[in-house]
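User: Design a sequence. Structure:
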Protein backbone atom coordinates (compact mmCIF):
# COMPACT_ATOMS: atom_id res chain seq x y z
CA UNK A 1 0.00 0.00 0.00
CA UNK A 2 1.43 3.42 -0.89
CA UNK A 3 2.34 5.50 2.14
CA UNK A 4 2.96 9.24 2.19
CA UNK A 5 4.62 11.30 4.90
CA UNK A 6 2.75 14.61 5.27
CA UNK A 7 4.33 17.39 7.32
CA UNK A 8 2.18 20.12 8.82
CA UNK A 9 -0.67 17.61 8.99
CA UNK A 10 -2.50 19.52 11.75
CA UNK A 11 -2.72 22.66 9.60
CA UNK A 12 -5.59 23.30 7.22
CA UNK A 13 -3.69 22.46 4.03
CA UNK A 14 -1.91 19.49 5.62
CA UNK A 15 -5.14 18.04 6.98
CA UNK A 16 -6.93 18.56 3.67
CA UNK A 17 -4.08 16.90 1.78
CA UNK A 18 -3.99 13.94 4.17
CA UNK A 19 -7.77 13.63 3.89
CA UNK A 20 -7.61 13.54 0.07
CA UNK A 21 -4.79 10.98 0.08
CA UNK A 22 -6.53 8.65 2.52
CA UNK A 23 -9.86 8.99 0.69
CA UNK A 24 -8.16 7.31 -2.26
CA UNK A 25 -6.57 4.59 -0.13
CA UNK A 26 -3.11 6.00 0.53
CA UNK A 27 -1.77 5.45 4.02
CA UNK A 28 -0.58 8.70 5.68
CA UNK A 29 2.05 9.28 8.33
CA UNK A 30 1.41 12.81 9.56
CA UNK A 31 4.02 14.94 11.30
CA UNK A 32 3.33 18.17 13.19
CA UNK A 33 4.91 20.00 16.14
CA UNK A 34 1.53 21.42 17.25
CA UNK A 35 3.10 24.77 18.15
CA UNK A 36 0.94 27.62 19.40
CA UNK A 37 1.28 29.97 16.41
CA UNK A 38 -2.26 28.87 15.54
CA UNK A 39 -4.73 27.50 18.11
CA UNK A 40 -3.51 24.05 19.27
CA UNK A 41 -7.10 23.01 20.09
CA UNK A 42 -8.01 23.48 16.44
CA UNK A 43 -5.00 21.40 15.41
CA UNK A 44 -5.96 18.60 17.80
CA UNK A 45 -9.54 18.67 16.47
CA UNK A 46 -8.24 18.25 12.91
CA UNK A 47 -6.10 15.29 13.94
CA UNK A 48 -9.02 13.70 15.78
CA UNK A 49 -11.15 14.08 12.67
CA UNK A 50 -8.55 12.30 10.53
CA UNK A 51 -8.18 9.51 13.09
CA UNK A 52 -11.94 9.03 13.41
CA UNK A 53 -12.48 9.05 9.67
CA UNK A 54 -9.57 6.84 8.59
CA UNK A 55 -8.46 4.80 11.61
CA UNK A 56 -5.38 2.71 10.81
CA UNK A 57 -4.74 4.50 7.52
CA UNK A 58 -3.54 7.47 9.61
CA UNK A 59 -0.55 7.58 11.94
CA UNK A 60 0.29 10.82 13.75
CA UNK A 61 3.78 11.65 14.99
CA UNK A 62 4.11 14.66 17.30
CA UNK A 63 7.60 15.76 16.34
CA UNK A 64 9.35 18.94 15.23
CA UNK A 65 10.92 18.21 11.84
CA UNK A 66 13.52 20.91 12.56
CA UNK A 67 15.00 18.54 15.19
CA UNK A 68 16.93 16.08 13.01
CA UNK A 69 17.56 13.55 15.79
CA UNK A 70 13.94 13.52 17.00
CA UNK A 71 12.67 13.31 13.42
CA UNK A 72 14.94 10.40 12.54
CA UNK A 73 13.94 8.57 15.72
CA UNK A 74 10.21 9.13 15.19
CA UNK A 75 10.35 7.99 11.56
CA UNK A 76 12.60 4.97 12.17
CA UNK A 77 9.84 2.35 12.52
CA UNK A 78 7.80 3.71 9.59
CA UNK A 79 8.07 3.06 5.86
CA UNK A 80 6.90 5.58 3.27
CA UNK A 81 7.57 6.13 -0.40
CA UNK A 82 6.56 9.78 -0.78
CA UNK A 83 6.86 13.02 1.18
CA UNK A 84 4.48 15.98 0.95
CA UNK A 85 6.22 18.74 2.91
CA UNK A 86 3.61 21.32 3.93
CA UNK A 87 4.84 22.21 7.41
CA UNK A 88 6.41 25.62 7.96
CA UNK A 89 6.51 28.61 10.26
CA UNK A 90 4.24 31.10 8.44
CA UNK A 91 4.04 34.85 8.66
CA UNK A 92 6.33 37.59 7.39
CA UNK A 93 5.80 39.72 10.52
CA UNK A 94 6.63 36.77 12.77
CA UNK A 95 9.83 36.15 10.79
CA UNK A 96 10.99 39.70 11.42
CA UNK A 97 10.37 39.43 15.16
CA UNK A 98 11.56 35.81 15.50
CA UNK A 99 14.07 35.11 12.71
CA UNK A 100 15.62 32.15 14.54
CA UNK A 101 12.31 30.27 14.83
CA UNK A 102 11.56 30.99 11.19
CA UNK A 103 14.98 29.83 10.00
CA UNK A 104 14.90 26.75 12.19
CA UNK A 105 11.54 25.54 10.88
CA UNK A 106 11.67 26.70 7.29
CA UNK A 107 15.34 26.23 6.46
CA UNK A 108 16.74 23.63 8.84
CA UNK A 109 13.48 21.67 8.86
CA UNK A 110 13.36 21.58 5.07
CA UNK A 111 16.98 20.42 4.93
CA UNK A 112 16.18 17.67 7.45
CA UNK A 113 13.36 16.40 5.25
CA UNK A 114 15.58 16.49 2.16
CA UNK A 115 18.07 14.37 4.10
CA UNK A 116 15.35 11.93 5.16
CA UNK A 117 14.34 11.60 1.51
CA UNK A 118 17.95 11.10 0.39
CA UNK A 119 18.88 8.53 3.03
CA UNK A 120 15.65 6.55 2.63
CA UNK A 121 15.62 6.66 -1.16
CA UNK A 122 12.22 8.37 -1.30
CA UNK A 123 11.24 8.60 -4.96
CA UNK A 124 8.98 11.66 -4.76
CA UNK A 125 8.91 14.74 -2.56
CA UNK A 126 6.55 17.67 -2.96
CA UNK A 127 7.38 20.91 -1.17
CA UNK A 128 4.79 23.64 -0.86
CA UNK A 129 6.40 26.90 0.08
CA UNK A 130 4.69 29.29 2.45
CA UNK A 131 2.58 32.03 0.91
CA UNK A 132 4.88 34.76 2.18
CA UNK A 133 7.61 33.76 -0.25
CA UNK A 134 7.32 33.86 -3.97
CA UNK A 135 8.60 35.30 -7.18
CA UNK A 136 9.57 38.92 -7.48
CA UNK A 137 7.69 41.27 -9.76
CA UNK A 138 10.36 40.78 -12.42
CA UNK A 139 10.03 37.00 -12.31
CA UNK A 140 6.90 35.19 -13.48
CA UNK A 141 5.21 32.79 -11.07
CA UNK A 142 6.25 29.14 -11.48
CA UNK A 143 4.02 26.83 -13.46
CA UNK A 144 3.13 23.23 -12.69
CA UNK A 145 6.02 22.21 -14.96
CA UNK A 146 8.66 24.35 -13.22
CA UNK A 147 11.47 22.28 -11.73
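Assistant: Done.
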Amino acid sequence: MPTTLVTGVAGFIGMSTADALMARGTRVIGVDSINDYYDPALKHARLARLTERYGDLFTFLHVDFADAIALKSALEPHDFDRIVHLGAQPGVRYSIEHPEAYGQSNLVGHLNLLEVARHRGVAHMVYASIASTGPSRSMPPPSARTR
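The mean pLDDT is 88. Helices lie at 12-23, 40-54, 68-75, 92-97, 99-120.
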